[in-house]
Amino acid sequence: xxxxxxxxxxxxxxxxxxxxxxxxxxxxxxxxxxxxxxxxxxxxxxxxxxxxxxxxxxxxxxxxxxxxxxxxxxxxxxxxxxxxxxxxxxxxxxxxxxxxxxxxxxxxxxxxxxxxxxxxxxxxxxxxxxxxxxxxxxxxxxxxxxxxxxxxxxxxxxxxxxxxxxxxxxxxxxxxxxxxxxxxxxxxxxxxxxxxxxxxxxxxxxxxxxxxxxxxxxxxxxxxxxxxxxxxxxxxxxxxxxxxxxxxxxxxxxxxxxxxxxxxxxxxxxxxxx
Length: 274
Description:
This protein is of the alpha+beta class. It is 34% helix and 24% strand.
């Protein structure tokens, strides 16, 4: 917030200084205000670099590609984002609830070690040679107070097919905290009602019929919000990953609600970034 107060004071001082100046000075004033606006806008944006990790060069390893953004800063929100992404990668590459890996490289080594273990125990399973993991993340929405990162992952460890998933991570830039879904809303119940109405409409589910009428698998036959909710340029998006409310063959189920519709239920007002 301090930098925004600085920008406001600077605007005010420049305006007062030249408000009674000749026309040519007013043109200079306009240019100064424009440059200041650009500078303040840039300060609202976090600076990211792309970090890519692979195990290329290992002839007897599962294929792995990790590509995620890393915040280039030492402030609280940077540490929170970088830590959250690291923990997501470690979790995604884990086979057990407890994982001793403290960084992404360690998680990749753990995944490789599990591959070698399975290969030694079941040497006749040809599918073991096809193990792979690909995890890519990107910033999909950012304004002065919030940033959303979308993480897309895919792992295959044998069997009929692999598993793909999408995870949204939302961060409060002012507080430097990761946000749980409930923290996004001032009226969660009202938003849930709106989301169910739009979900039924898009999926051709009768308005007054059971939510599972057309083959969905909502627990206890009751609609619920997706675990993964994130901000996108078009609006608030929910994604139900495979198996969450439908079969694997149905793929992920997406529902996007425009900011015009969602804003009355959100704690803050958001604008589309088209």
